[in-house]
Amino acid sequence: MTDQERRQGRDESEEERADRMWGELIQEVRVAQTGVQILFGFLLTVVFQQKYAELSDVDRTIYIVTVVLGAAATGALIGPVSLHRLVAGRKVKPQAVRLASGLTQIGLFLLLATMAAALVLILRVATGGSKVTWVVVAVVVWYLVCWYGLPLWSRRRHTTR
Predict the structure, then answer these.
(1) Per-residue b/e over 100-117, b at no fewer than 16 CB within 10 Å?
(2) Is 30 helix (H, G, I), strand (E, B) or coil?
(3) Which strand (E) or helix (H) includes residue 14?
(4) Cα separation of 40 and 72, whole Å?
(5) Rounded distance, CA 104 to CA 99, Å?
(6) Of 51, 115, 152, 157, which is the most buried if we count CB atoms within 10 A?
(7) pLDDT (mean) for 115-120
(8) SS (HEC) of 87-144
(9) What does the alpha-carbon distance between residue 12 and residue 18 come to, in Å, rounded to a whole number?
(10) How far is it, in rounded angstroms, from Cα 56 to Cα 129?
(11) Residue 158: how many CB atoms within 10 A of its CB?
């Protein structure tokens, strides 16, 4: 395949496309990183609060799972930065973009799970557990619509073949 045959849509080479996609990905990751880092930082402080000693065993387990999910999300969403630093100048940007995109998708899924678990814990403590499941399910469905449903619908509706 010639260079000209590879050019589709925009008039850019594979390297130019990788540069553009990398820039877009890093902007997206910056937004998610900020959110996950604030949430994770907040979660780390909960164990030092006086009310933590009063939590039931179930709530403590939910808290521990939430912290582990937050740590995993943080790692996945910071991963693309480390990846870029370690492969910069090695002429592997197209492959690095694909890998970083995968890490970002994993990070977003883990962020969704972290937020759902945190919401379960907070609502259980705040309400004594009444109707928590339905509220959390509704919020998770909303996240799924916003983060996956609408983008996939838009991609399907507006992508030209």
Answers:
(1) bbebbebbbbbbbbbbbb
(2) helix
(3) helix 14-46
(4) 10
(5) 9
(6) 115
(7) 96
(8) HCCCCCHHHHHHHHHHHHHHHHHHHHHHHHHHHHHHHHHHHCCCCHHHHHHHHHHHHH
(9) 9
(10) 12
(11) 7
Residue-wise pLDDT tens digits, 10-55: 788 888 898 899 999 999 999 998 889 999 999 999 999 999 999 9
Residues, the chain: 161
How confident is residue 158, by pLDDT bands cut at 50, 70 and 90? very high
Tell the residue number behind the tokens 């937020």, with chain if given: 115
Q: Are 112 and 140 in contact (CB under 8 A)?
A: yes
Q: Is it the case that residue 119 has pLDDT exceeding 60?
A: yes
CA distance 39 to 52: 17
Q: Residue 26 corresponds to which amino acid?
A: I
